[in-house]
Amino acid sequence: MKRIILFIISIFSFSSIFAQITLTDSYFPAAGDTLFSFNDVVPSIDVPTSGADQVWDFTSLSGPVVLQTVLKAASEGVNNAQFPGASILADFQGGEGYYAVDNNNYRFQGYVGPDPGGLGIDIVALFSPNVIERRANLEYLDVNSGESNMLFAFAWDDVPSAVSDSLNLPITPDSVRIRVNIDRLEIIDGWGTVDIPGGTYEVLKENRREITDTRIEAKISILPWQDLTDLVPPEIGFFGMDTSRTYNFYANNVIEPIASVTLNDEETEVRRVSFKANDFTIPVKDISTLSADVIAYPNPAIEEVKFELSSLPTGDYKLQIFNILGVPVWSRDFSTGGTKTMKADLSELRKGTYLYSLIDGKGKTLTTKRLMIIRP
Questions:
Q1: Same domain, yes or no, for 314 and 216?
Q2: 340: which residues sit within 8 A by CB, 6+ positions away?
Q3: What is the pLDDT of residues 76-106, one digit of tens each?
């Protein structure tokens, strides 16, 4: 009898091991595909668990519009000659991204568009080696790691005054460059079922930790390149070390991530979730034509708030907070393009209702939203 019980247990254990899926290259996007997704910036889900045979319930997620990303042949790109070997082009606001597929890897070669330092400079950025965005064949407990670098130089006159003035250098540099290093560790730490609005999928869960180190360096006369990163005030943003944690849920034969869950800096709560769109009864917007936007979180805020700015054409901007009488109580000027995150210390403001606005260089208000400040 004991042998029979042990035999039955071994069968169930053996079955559970092979119930997981193996991700093949069927989830790689290709030229001619269109990806549809939602973006929930105020998600009400817990930090996803890890392990075997999990069930993740993300049915509470929602988004205001369906975001559409159209993938074209790389040969259609204006800058395709800069990215030999690329087969896929993705347009985004103000630029182009190039991808290649080989040896069971879906690789991000680079892009043409706003610089990653948020200086408002359009660049041609090639990653060396390419950043591997997806891999096949993937199985539970697989571990992958990799590094990539990017380096580009520009004239000192192109540096926004907000940055150049803050450095307060005694001598004007001959030229400036930005160096970016990306260090990734990816662990397939879970498998199971994900429920999102409109669908249920068998998935693998990828736990991705990414450390990005962005440095600004200057060349002065015959001296070697000087690292100026520590001279840039923290409020300028972008420069220095940044660590992010993202959980990606992938399914075979589905080119969109079923869900991509981004955690806060402390990795204790979910900050935003991008997930596959199954509902097309609401407006669809192409990601390359999205207008500039800003989102404050947490909201309500206690003392510190982060502003996530997205889809910004390269240029000058002002972010302001007003009280209910319309009087500015906080303001910051900056130059950037693409995406930027800014922190604000609001500990000196009283609790209550405020408004925050994003204003472009011509003084036009692009968006205004409400911000609540509370006190424990």
A1: no
A2: 118, 237, 238, 308, 309, 312, 334
A3: 999 999 999 999 999 887 789 999 998 899 9
